[in-house]
Amino acid sequence: MFKVLLVEDNVDFRHSLNKSLMLCFPAMVIAESADGKDAMVKIDYFKPDLVFMDIKLPDENGLNLTKNIKAEHSDIAVIVMTANDAPEYYRAAYQAGATYFIDKGSVSMEKIPAIVEAILGSKVCH
């Protein structure tokens, strides 16, 4: 069973991402979190294979959360997302341990499944 955690405070974006993933990967189990505190709790008990992490969250910086996740669970892939495509965000995401970086303004929901498959390959259940 393949598990994904969506950490995103924008409920519309989070639900769109969830729907896009479920359409392509019906066997995937998806959990959602709107803030960093809840995300870290879910990381420990849900044990996702992949985390979609927004940079700007109401209570925490997604880059700090990414560092914490990778320090404690190096096997979890993290896709950092932001609405700001500034090069410094891109560099900071990879320095924090991100597996991939997504500019929410320039990537379509249709491309997300291909990104997931590229990162996780045969781990993804269809």
Please explain how this structure is put together.
By secondary structure, the chain is α/β, with parallel strands linked by helices. The protein has a single domain (3-123), classed as Response regulator (Rossmann fold). The chain is 43% helix and 20% strand. The protein is built from five helices and five strands. It has helices at 11-24, 36-46, 62-72, 87-95, 112-120; strands at 3-7, 29-33, 50-54, 77-82, 100-103. The protein has a five-stranded parallel sheet with strand order 2-1-3-4-5, sandwiched between helices. Strand 1, helix 1 (11-24) and strand 2 form a beta-alpha-beta unit. 30% of the residues are buried. The mean pLDDT is 91.
Summarize the model shown.
This protein is α/β, with parallel strands linked by helices and 126 residues long. The protein contains 5 helices and 5 strands.
Q: Note the main sheet.
A: 5 strands, parallel
What is the succession of H and E elements?
EHEHEHEHEH
Fold-level CATH name: Rossmann fold
Rounded mean pLDDT score = 91
Give, in spatial order, the strands making up the sheet with the most strands. 2-1-3-4-5
- Taken together, the total number of domains comes to 1
- Based on CA atoms alone, the radius of gyration comes out at 13 Å
CATH superfamily, by name, is Response regulator
**Helix content range:** 40-55%
CATH architecture name: 3-Layer(aba) Sandwich
Uncertain parts: none
Percent of residues in β-strands: 15-25%
CATH uppermost class: Alpha Beta
Keywords: Phosphoprotein
Pfam family, one: Response_reg
Modified residues (4-aspartylphosphate): 54
Protein name: Response regulator receiver protein
